[in-house]
Amino acid sequence: MPKSSEDIGNLDRLRETYIKKLPLISLNSEMAKREFYITPLLLELLEYVQAKINVEYPLNAGKNLSGNIDYLLKFTNNIIILEAKNGDLEHGFNQLAVELIALDNYLEDKQTFLYGAITLGDVWRFSLLDRKNKF
């Protein structure tokens, strides 16, 4: 993932939300994890970077390459797909790979890399698609 040298401020409020409040919430669905794990994190992210966040972004890149991406983050130079899953990281990672390929086919711009992330909320996995070399 791209790195920044920007100093990230105090994240105590977000940490407190995760540690103290999330145990009180039933997070047994994908939607619940999106609303309580991911959304607060993305809102905090907007304090540090300029990005546009599309929720339930519809993508139609042809046969077998269509559906909705949970979150599509567009930065000046990068695009990140973020998927929330209730379980089964392997299946979710396969879905993320297909979404990255579909997005590669769909986008006209010449970004070299597309980034992806999948999360169960408390577990994260990351992916990178090299558009030039197709791996």
Key features?
single chain, 135 residues, alpha+beta, Trna Endonuclease, Chain: A, domain 1, 5-stranded mixed β-sheet, 3 helices, globular
Named at the architecture level, the CATH assignment is: 3-Layer(aba) Sandwich
- What would you report as the Rg, rounded to the nearest angstrom? 15 Å
Number of DSSP helices?
A: 3
| Chain-averaged pLDDT | 86
Shape: globular
3D structure, described in words:
- The chain has a single domain, classed as 3-Layer(aba) Sandwich (Trna Endonuclease, Chain: A, domain 1), CATH 3.40.1350.
- The chain contains three helices and five strands.
- The radius of gyration is 15 Å and the shape is globular.
- The chain has 135 residues and is an alpha+beta fold.
- The mean pLDDT is 86.
Write a concise synopsis of the structure shown:
With 135 residues, the chain is an alpha+beta fold.
Secondary structure blueprint with pairings:
Blueprint: H1 12-21, H2 30-45, E1 52-60, E2 66-74, E3 79-84, H3 89-106, E4 113-119, E5 124-130
Parallel strand pairs: 3-4
Antiparallel strand pairs: 1-2, 2-3, 4-5
